[in-house]
Write a structure and sequence with these properties.
Blueprint (H helix, E strand, L loop, with lengths): L1 E4 L2 E4 L2 H7 L6 H17 L4 H28 L21 H25 L3 H15 L13 H22 L4 H24 L1 H6 L5 H5 L1 H24 L14 H11 L9 H27 L1
Antiparallel strand pairs: 1-2
Helix pairs in contact: 2-3, 2-6, 2-7, 2-12, 3-4, 3-5, 3-6, 4-5, 5-6, 6-7, 7-10, 7-12, 10-11, 11-12
C-alpha cells in the first residue's frame, strides 16, 4: 500500500516501521524497568499499572531517541543507503525527514502524558528527572553539539537509559531510593553504555572521517575494545562483591550465565574493521545486556520467593 506524505509516496509495511525504531535497542529500555521493579518487590509491593506505564514510557523514549538519531544523521549527511545499523526510513524507503521528526515528537508526547500519570501516582519530583531524560534523548544527536559527537555518549546513555531508569522504576513503587537499588543499578548502567560503545566501534572509520570525537575515535579502536572487555569483567565482578558484602543473595549470580555472550561480543570485534562484519558482535553486546539484566531479575525474584 502506498500513501502520500509531503508529495512523496511511502511504502508502509510493518517491517519498515519495525526496523525504523531499531528494535534491537529497545531491550536497553525494557530490562532496566523490569530490574528496578523486581528490586522494589524485595522491599515493598508492586503497582503493576505503574510498572506498565513506566515500561511503555521508557520504550517510547528509546524509540524516539532512535528516530531523532535517524533524522539528524541524515540531515548532517552521515547516513547513506549503504549505511549499516540504521533504520533506513529516509535513505532506503523514501520517508521524509519531517515524518521521522513528527513520529519522534509524537512518541515523546505520549511518553509525556504517561509521565504525568506516573508523577501524579508517585511524586512530582520525577517530572524534572523525566524531562531531563527526554532532553538527553533529543540532544544525543540534536542541538548544536550532539552528545554522539563527543566521547561522552556511553556515559550519558548508561546513566540516563540504564542506571536512572532502574532507580525511577524502583522509586515509583517504593517512594524511596535504597542503597541496594543503587548498587544493583551500576552494572546494568555500564552494560547499556557498552551497547552504545559497540555502535561507535562499528562506526569508527565513518565517525573519524566526519569529525566525530567518539570514545573509539579518541582512544583508538583497540583501546576502546580493551575498555569494553574491562567493563564487562567489572560488571560481573561487581555482582560477586554485592554477594560477598551481603547486599544480595548468591542467586543474583545467575547473571554469570550471560558471560558467553560477552565473550562473543569481544571476540566478534577483534580484527574487524568493516562495519558489516561487526554486526554479530553488536548483537552479542545487546544480548549480553538483555540476558545479564533478565538473569539478575530472575535471581532476585527467586530470592523473594524463598
Amino acid at each position: 500500500m502506498q500513501t502520500e506524505y509531503d508529495g512523496l509516496p511511502l511504502k508502509r509495511t510493518w517491517k519498515i516501521w519495525w526496523e525504523l525504531i531499531r528494535p534491537h535497542t529497545l531491550t536497553a529500555a525494557f530490562v532496566p524497568v523490569l530490574l528496578g521493579t523486581v528490586i522494589a518487590l524485595l522491599e515493598d509491593g508492586v503497582n503493576w499499572l505503574l510498572f506498565a506505564a513506566m515500561m511503555i514510557a521508557s520504550i517510547l523514549i528509546q524509540a524516539a531517541t532512535n528516530l531523532f538519531n535517524e533524522y539528524y544523521d541524515f540531515k548532517r549527511g552521515l547516513d547513506t543507503e549503504e549505511s549499516v545499523g540504521i533504520g533506513g526510513g529516509i535513505v532506503r524507503h523514501g520517508m521524509t525527514p519531517r515524518l521521522i521528526m513528527n513520529l519522534a515528537l509524537g512518541m515523546y508526547a505520549i511518553a509525556l502524558i504517561i509521565g504525568i500519570y506516573i508523577c501524579a501516582a508517585s511524586s512530582w519530583w520525577l517530572a524534572a528527572v523525566g524531562l531531563v531524560c527526554m532532553l538527553v534523548g533529543y540532544l544525543y544527536t540534536g542541538g548544536p553539539l550532539p552528545i554522539s559527537y563527543t566521547p561522552f555518549g556511553e556515559l550519558f546513555s548508561g546513566l540516563f537509559m540504564g542506571f536512572l531508569i532502574i532507580l525511577i522504576a524502583f522509586f515509583i513503587q517504593t517512594g524511596d531510593v535504597s542503597s541496594t537499588a543503587i548498587l544493583i543499578a551500576i552494572p546494568s548502567g555500564i552494560l547499556v553504555g557498552l551497547i552504545n560503545l559497540s555502535n561507535n566501534l562499528r562506526d569508527h572509520d565513518g565517525d573519524k572521517a566526519h569529525g566525530r570525537k567518539t570514545m573509539p575515535v579518541v582512544m583508538g579502536r583497540k583501546n576502546a575494545l580493551t575498555f569494553m572487555a574491562i567493563m564487562f569483567a567489572f560488571s560481573y565482578l561487581w555482582l560477586v562483591g554485592l554477594v560477598l558484602t551481603g547486599n544480595v543473595t548468591a542467586w543474583i549470580l545467575l547473571a554469570f550465565l550471560s558471560i558467553p555472550k560477552a565473550m562473543a561480543a569481544i571476540k566478534g570485534f577483534v580484527g574487524k574493521t568493516q562495519p558489516i562484519t561487526m554486526v554479530p558482535a553488536m548483537k552479542a553486546t545487546a544480548q549480553t545486556n538483555t540476558f545479564f539484566g533478565l538473569l539478575m531479575a530472575i535471581g532476585l525474584f527467586i530470592s523473594y520467593l524463598i
